[in-house]
Each structure stands twice: as structure tokens, then as C-alpha cells.
Amino acid sequence: xxxxxxxxxxxxxxxxxxxxxxxxxxxxxxxxxxxxxxxxxxxxxxxxxxxxxxxxxxxxxxxxxxxxxxxxxxxxxxxxxxxxxxxxxxxxxxxxxxxxxxxxxxxxxxxxxxxxxxxxxxxxxxxxxxxxxxxxxxxxxxxxxxxxxxxxxxxxxxxxxxxxxxxxxxxxxxxxxxxxxxxxxxxxxxxxxxxxxxxxxxxxxx
Length: 206
Prior knowledge:
Structural class: alpha/beta
Number of domains: 1
Helix content: 25-40%
CATH class: Alpha Beta
CATH superfamily: DHBP synthase
Number of strands: 10
Number of helices: 7
Distance between the termini: 46 Å
CATH architecture: Alpha-Beta Complex
Order of helices and strands: EHEEHEHHEEHEHEEEH
Low-confidence stretches: none
């Protein structure tokens, strides 16, 4: 049974405990503005390998990265990839349910995220808790808290129970949604939507 802490009644304790677990290489189920995710630090050896085991999926599928703000995101990508359009999305749609796939910077090539080492999927969530956690521990590798191919639960305990093993900590943030973020491949000026969530193509073109 994983330890549980409430982000609603004990936000400071939840933040402290989540930071300790992540920095030690552990995994945390946490609430976001979309669905519950399971997270680890991509710079800690072996930490993201645990995410793939918990998801019961192959390591070739990439993990997304949650960031505290656009500045933290920009440090992970090729500066030339942040076009005027990408910068506008960051300014207008972050924090929010938009994941941007961009070329990695040389400095971020070491991040263990699965998938292609040339790109990184970044999101600044509309969650005070997650942004504060990322500000403290750095960019956070995450994936939805469910086994691969199965529905994503809407409560913290159900999310933890849906995984293939225990996590170091469960952060209960109350009921979550079931619609994941919109994922946009912005590695080329002819961007394309890889997965549509609550952010629509119309939103992107405004």
C-alpha cells in the first residue's frame, strides 16, 4: 500500500513529501489539470524505467515533461525551435492542457524519457501544485496513471491501484478529469496535432 497525502488539506506537506520521493528516484501519483499522472525525475538514474514498468508498456513510447513555466521549458529545447507561433502558444495556452513536442536542446539530451532522444514533449499544467513541484525539483517526467491501453481513473487511489505496482507516494488532489492534453508536434513549421484533447485546432489557430 502506497503512502497517501492530500494536496487539498495539506498542500505544503504534499509538496515536501513528493519532492523527497522524486529526488530519491521514486515515483509519485499526482493530480494535474487533466488526468492523474504518475511521475519521476528524468535526471535520476533508473527513475523513469520504473514508470514504464508501472504502465506495463514498452520503453520506446515517450514520456511527457511537466514544467513550472515557459522559461523552464525553453531550457530544454533548441532555441531555434521556439518560433513566434510556439512562443504565442506558450504565452496564451500555458498553463493549460497543451503538450508541445519540440527538438531537444543539447543540454537536455541526457533526459531519460523513452522514445526519440531528439525531441521532448513539454507541458506547463494549470495546476499550482505541479508547477510548484517542478519549480522545486526540476522538470518532471510523467504519463497518465493507468496501465497502457486502459482507462484513466478519476481518483488518486483508483489511479494508484490501476498501475502494475506500488508507487512511493500518492498525492490526492480530489476528482480528476478523463480528457488528456492536446499533443502538438511542433518540430516543423507545418505543425500537426498528434492527439486532440481540450485544446482544439481552432484554439491553436487563434
